[in-house]
Amino acid sequence: MEKAIKKYWPFFLLPTLAAFIIGFVWPFLWGIFLSFHKFTTISKTTFVGLDNYLKVFQDSTFVSAFWFTAKFTVVSTVLINVIAFAIALALTRGLKGTNVFRTVFFMPNLIGGVVLGYVWSMIFDAILRRYATSLAVNATWGFWGLVVLVAWQQIGYMMIIYIAAIQNIPDSVIEASAIDGAGGWRRLFSITIPMVVPAFTVGLFLMLSNSFKLFDQNLALTKGGPNHCNEMLALNIYNSAFVSNQTGYAQAKAVIFLISVATISIIQLIATKRAEVET
User: Fold this and answer.
1) Does the pTM of the predicted model rise above 0.70?
2) Contact indicator for 121, 137 with CB cutoff of 8 Å
3) Distance between CA atoms of 138 and 212, rounded to whole angstroms?
4) How far apart are CA 76 and CA 254, in angstroms?
5) Residue 195's closest CA among 178, 219, 214, 171?
6) Strands (DSSP E) along the chain, which ranges?
7) How far apart are CA 275 and CA 191, in angstroms?
8) pLDDT, tens only, 206-227
């Protein structure tokens, strides 16, 4: 069997490689090519060099969307991971009904972002109407509404990751710490957290990338309003391409967006991997 695999491995690899090239590599390269063009019609383009990229950095809405996305990413990543880890700790204490609670916390992750956006917009507007405001006119409430929506959706998913990591800690280590007289807080900071650092690496990576790429919840909840104040990068690119019909310009934004997300994610992975080695 091993000889057959070694002999015919290119044959088994070919379908996956073809799908990867067709679904990712070719669209990526074609997108970079289009970012240097201006569309005169749907099918005709004019080469404009770096004009689209220069225009991006002069676009106040793109710059505003970038900083809003960065702020949202930091707040949501920290909040979701902290709460998810706290819930994971509580649900690994052998409490009754643990499986029910895990299911309840995880269920919001199964609901689509657009549906959640519209549901939460109705909830928030019903509450804020009493104070003569709404998500559409108050940028602060729009920001925190988006944070609450994403946290409610993602906490259960991150909780599952942390539960798996905590349950993977050897019982012998916990028992040894108890014999040595270590209290609950000492075990948490000296044993539990250091041993689940790999899970933190995964959790931070997922939340950083997902928060930066957030689109459907932003569109459904606030549509980027008021006056682009709550517009995230993905929605900004979408509006440039399909609302303003500036396809080449939007593609240049998308390339910058990709480079930014990839750079931040790589830096985060390197930093957390170093933390794993140190612990």
Assistant:
1) yes
2) no
3) 22
4) 22
5) 171
6) 37-39, 45-47
7) 14
8) 999 999 999 999 999 988 888 8
